[in-house]
Amino acid sequence: MSIDAGRRSAERRHGGSYYNPQFRAHTLKVFLGHHLVSDKADVMMVTTLGSCVAACVCDPAAAIGGMNHFLLPDVPDTELDHAGAAARYGSVAMERLINEILARGGRRSRLEVKLFGGARVIDSSFDIGRKNAAFALDYVRREGLKLVGQDFGGTSARRVHYFPHNGRAMRKLLRPEALSDTINQELNFMSSLRQQPIEGDVELFTED
Asked: Within 13 Å and on the Cβ side, how many CA atoms surround 107?
């Protein structure tokens, strides 16, 4: 199997794939807890967010980028008992996405980041969406990355379309009836994090 075919196969396995005639693009779904990277001009990535955040990262000079979708750290024990895995998950997701982009030819100094999500959709005294947004912004600042766009907050679920080849992103706020599925997905994922820790160690990304 060629390298190109292998990458296409990996994209299909991890994110699901379908052809979108409106955008004339092979569309890859990015599910909560996953990330995808592509250098194909005809690829579009899509995810739906509630209180979670998606980071869209691109090296426009190398024409490669990717998207993740993650439940971020420091959810307190008063909200989620035994949330140790959740408390690490945001940084793990960012490191994995950026490391893969760098491994496939991107350069850290050229990376451009767009951030989406962080809505208040879960009925709780603790505003998880706001904390998620704050974490994502702080992460980008601490790592010296270039933030070129952000869309946070509100009380609606949002769908994000992202073209990793050139960094183009579009956001659509969804109707209220789409919200319950998004909330259930996030709550189920939080529940699974209580029982299953992150596997292995993750090193900070570096560049030669």
From this structure: 6
Q: CA 2 to CA 90: how far, in whole Å? A: 33
Establish if 31 belongs to a structural domain: yes
Q: How many domains does the chain have?
A: 1
Query: Can you give the CATH number for the domain in which 65 is found?
Result: 3.30.1330.200
SS3 131: helix
What is the rounded distance in angstroms from the CA atom of residue 67 to the CA atom of residue 169? Answer: 11
Q: What is the mean pLDDT of residues 61-78?
A: 77
Predicted model pTM: 0.78
How many Å from the N-terminal Cα to the C-terminal Cα in the chain? 29
The parent domain of residue 84 ranges over 3-193
167 φψ region: left (φ > 0), alpha (ψ -120 to 50), beta (else):
left
Any idea which residue has 């408390």 for tokens? 87
- Give the CA-trace dihedral at 183, 184, 190, 193, to 10 degrees: -150
Confidence of residue 72 (pLDDT cuts 50, 70, 90): low
Residue 78 lies in a domain: yes
CA separation for the pair 118, 133 (Å, rounded) = 5
Taking residue 69's Cβ as centre, other Cβ atoms within 10 Å add up to 26
Q: Which amino acid is at 63?
A: A
Triad 88, 125, 141: Cα angle to 5° = 40
